[in-house]
């Protein structure tokens, strides 16, 4: 975790920003829950346990800043709420997709690039430089199917 925090601090400093104590707390909550796709409100509730004085607006500003520096990115899984996960970093290609259960709202990551062939074909045919893609597959998870 220390390495990630140090890397984030360096990236922010290079962009004339800094990692304040409050921003670091938001970052730590995201790191500790990196296996989840937290909404801003969920991040806020977790931060609030450690820093009751921190406001929701501060959490939103930290999330916006982290997005601006491609530390995290927001995804809408069809429920109208942005959820956050760590970005792939500048110049790197994002290679995972999401399965979203329409009953329980569960999210499962598929950690392989399912669209590489399609991306290459589209890029060649349309002379289009693809920088990223997202694939969201909606259905019913194993637990909900069994109910």
UniProtKB/TrEMBL annotation:
Residues the entry annotates as binding Zn(2+): 101, 104, 141, 144
Assigned protein family: Belongs to the Fur family.
Origin species: Pelotomaculum thermopropionicum (strain DSM 13744 / JCM 10971 / SI)
Cofactor comment text: Binds 1 Mn(2+) or Fe(2+) ion per subunit.
MF GO annotations: DNA-binding transcription factor activity; transcription cis-regulatory region binding; zinc ion binding
Entry-linked Gene3D superfamilies: 3.30.1490.190, Winged helix-like DNA-binding domain superfamily/Winged helix DNA-binding domain
InterPro entries attached to this UniProt entry: FUR, Fur_C, WH-like_DNA-bd_sf, WH_DNA-bd_sf
Organism taxonomic ancestry: Bacteria, Bacillati, Bacillota, Clostridia, Eubacteriales
Gene this chain is encoded by: Fur
Protein name: Fe2+/Zn2+ uptake regulation proteins
Cofactor annotation: Mn(2+); Fe(2+); Zn(2+)
Binding site for Fe cation: 95, 116, 133
PANTHER family named in the record: FERRIC UPTAKE REGULATION PROTEIN (PTHR33202:SF7), ZINC UPTAKE REGULATION PROTEIN (PTHR33202)
Assigned keywords, A-Z: DNA-binding, Iron, Metal-binding, Repressor, Transcription, Transcription regulation, Zinc
SUPFAM superfamilies per UniProt: Winged helix' DNA-binding domain
One GO term of the biological process aspect: negative regulation of DNA-templated transcription
Signal peptide region: none
Matching CDD domains: Fur_like (cd07153)
